[in-house]
Amino acid sequence: MSSISENQKERLVKSQIKQHITKILTAILNCSTIMPFRWAANKFLCFFCCCSFVDCSKLKEHNKEEHFEAKLDNLVKDLVPTSIIKLDISDISCKLCPKPVPTLSEFLQHVTEKHEFKFEGQSHDNFFSFKLSDDGLNCLECGQSFRFFGPLLIHMNKYHAKTNRFLCDSCGQGFIAKRNLRSHIRVHKSLNSMDSDGKADEKCKCPKCPEILDTKYKRRQHLAIVHNDSSKKFSCDACSKLFFLKSRLVEHKLRVHVKEKFFTCEICGFKVFNKDQLTKHKVKHDDTRPFQCEICEKCFQRKKTLEFHRRIHTNDKRYACKDCDKAFVQFTSLKSHIRVHHSHNDKED
After folding, report:
1. Given this model, what pLDDT does residue 348 score?
2. What is the pLDDT of residue 279?
3. How far apart are the C-alpha atoms of 2 and 62, rounded to whole Å?
4. Beta pairing partners, 174
5. Residue 287 falls within a domain, yes or no?
6. Which stretches of 149-302 are DSSP H helices?
7. Cβ 278 vs Cβ 285: under 8 Å
8. So what's the pLDDT on residue 61?
9. Under 8 Å between Cβ of 76 and 25
10. Do 230 and 244 form a contact (C-beta atoms < 8 A)?
11. Pairwise CA distance, residues 169 & 150, whole Å
12. What start and end residues bound the annotated signal peptide (predicted)?
């Protein structure tokens, strides 16, 4: 019985938080020029529709043109009481009077005193304020400067969030609910498949290039895909095409011959051919990018993507063309080169 009462208590608290957030957002949309926004996959997302933008200036233009008189009614059901709502206050003013209100706190106090808005307390812990700019960003709490929004958001979660009681020890990302932290930690673990000593298994080193793979299976996969090195070849019974990996053969059959995608993302409805593709796709819906390049400060959702990115800075051209003297940082660049300049050679699908 106690667990049931605890669940009921948690639902009540969440309902109260959601009501409080709704009241604040209603005041923001009706009485101010503050712009709520979202952030995912290294892009600024419109709070009211599905449009995304690399530059915050484009988001601001879109918001003014398309959602100047936006209302909250249709968005209330999608509000999550355990999430932080991001606000751009770089162009903040009261729509009802000429009173200057430079901060969210002053705005809420102003509409309470002058325009008879009533809130259950003055807390706005579920909101982060930013002054978005394409020319650099500053933390409005401590003044620290950032070139990109991703690192600033991580900084805010780590040092200035009042409701994020659960922090990730690996990257500093903050969460209101413990289960959100657990989901986030699972991403870290899946990206850091190491042995018991925390070191990469020496047996998983590629014998033909500096690549280190997480498992022996991934090393075999790497040898087959990157170096065309495999003792087994799998033939498609429909078109006789050869593959170095059985998984590639199965994927080929699904794509080319069956043409049916069995796995659907429950968040956006996107369909893919296998479970691994679905897992990778779902990362796009996560707002966290815990892996930051120490050179350019760009942030990534996967550790492996960061490792690939670092090669650009070191000019690590490990993928050499066997037909000429060209070498490339990324395997995809090598594949494009072969397709354009050596198309007479056998290619893997």
Report:
1. 47
2. 77
3. 49
4. 167
5. no
6. 149-159, 178-191, 216-227, 246-252, 275-282
7. no
8. 92
9. no
10. yes
11. 18
12. none
- Residue 112, class by beta-carbon neighbours within 10 Å (0-12 exposed, 13-18 middle, 19+ buried)? middle
Domain total for the chain? 1
Placement of tokens 């922090």 in the chain? 167
Query: Which residues pair with residue 250 across a beta bridge?
Result: none
Instruction: Let me know how long the chain is.
Output: 349
In the structure encoding, which two tokens stand for residue 101, read together? 């209100």
Query: What is the predicted pLDDT for the residue at 138?
Result: 94
- What separation in angstroms does the CA of 140 have from each of 38, 44, 104? 18, 19, 11
**Cα(7)–Cα(72) distance, integer angstroms:** 28
In a domain, 334, yes or no: no
| pLDDT per residue as tens digits for the range 254-273 | 777 766 666 788 778 787 76
**Is pTM, for the whole model, over 0.85?**
no
Which structural domain range is residue 102 located in? 2-190
- 305 lies in a domain? no
Does some domain include residue 298? Answer: no
Residues of the chain with pLDDT under 50: 1-2, 191, 193-201, 347-349
* Separation in Å, CA 279 to CA 184, 185, 247, 282, 285: 13, 15, 16, 5, 11
Q: What is the pLDDT of residue 120?
A: 67
**What is d(CA 70, CA 257) in angstroms, rounded to the nearest whole number?**
47
